[in-house]
Amino acid sequence: MDIVVLAGGLSDERDVSLASASKISNALIKNKHRVLLLDLYLGMKDVKNFEEAYNLYGKTEYSYQVPKKAPNIKQLIAENQGRMDQIGCNVISICQTADIVFLGLHGGIGENGKLQALFDLHSIKYTGSDYKASMLAMDKVVSKEIMLANDILTPEWCIIDRFHEPTINAPAVIKPNDNGSSIGVEIVEDQSKLFEAINKAKEYSDTILVEQKITGREFSVGILGEQVLPVIELIPKSGFYDYSNKYQAGATEEITPANLAADLSEKMQKIALEIFRKLDLKVYGRVDFLMDVGNHIYCIEANSLPGMTPTSLLPQEALATGISYDKLCQKIVDLSLKKYEE
Questions:
Q1: Measuring CA to CA, which residue among 218, 221, 237 is closest to residue 229?
Q2: What is the largest CA-CA distance in the chain?
Q3: 34-88 tens-digit pLDDT
Q4: From its phi and psi, is residue 239 left (phi > 0), alpha (psi between -120 and 50) or beta?
Q5: What pLDDT, in 10s, does the model give residues 45-55?
Q6: Which residues touch 31 (CB under 8 Å, ≥6 apart)?
Q7: Contact 176/138 with Cβ under 8 angstroms?
Q8: Which domains does the chain have, with CATH numbers?
Q9: E strands, 40-107, where?
């Protein structure tokens, strides 16, 4: 098959996306597909379709390492003559002439449903969930409302935006509402640090989520089709599971399957599948949890396009069930094509 692996873009998670997409591309190449890694924002000049783009820019191997700090999007825009449009040259025409687009994107229009809606309008097949489910999962407040409506335990919260300025107290977790990879997230223990953390989060989103701090263990559960993958536990060597600890090799100990009593593992997996279905996610995804000292399981959020970097969680969970990385990427493609047949 001719497969475009779409990555990058103007998202704050563009570096994570490029690392994921490089690994995905290499796996699909090993699976005997013709693969083109395409940056959503940069696009490709002087080509009209997949064939031309592949002949000019196709590679036999890709590589990209996530830097310790999140990317400077303003600098990227400046380097491209201040261009603010999010879809680069010939992206649509290249994707239209491929058999399927593997979405290696994270955050921004690649994960909030906007790109999925655009691709639907242009009859472009893509991996993963549709625009509605992507939108619901990306909006942390909306997904938490859905959890609450379905009696799924999630940390208490309030929001800060132009309509809401509640009085809040530390300790608290401050998050941009529609960002991922823990970019802009701060765990604030000191009341005097709240203002600084909120202002930092406002750099990434107009709506700020202020969550109750849950002290305990961190877990994640992947879903692949209808298969619930083993629970993975995340133990950062310092601090919490932030951007650096997620993407720098060796910064976090990840244990699959997690050292949990069978009943707790099963309960967490059951909750993960329930929220996956309530959000109407498709093909694959990941659900994140915290568990306090009383073994209360709190659902934090769902991810419609989980990371696929060398340190990412979903590939580790799949491997624990005997699914290699190459097979995982192929299965995502196969399940996504089946979605269109149905």
A1: 221
A2: 60
A3: 999 999 999 999 999 999 999 999 999 999 988 877 788 889 899 998 898 899 9
A4: left
A5: 999 999 999 99
A6: 326, 329, 330
A7: no
A8: 2-126 (3.40.50.20), 138-151+215-341 (3.30.470.20), 163-210 (3.30.1490.20)
A9: 100-103
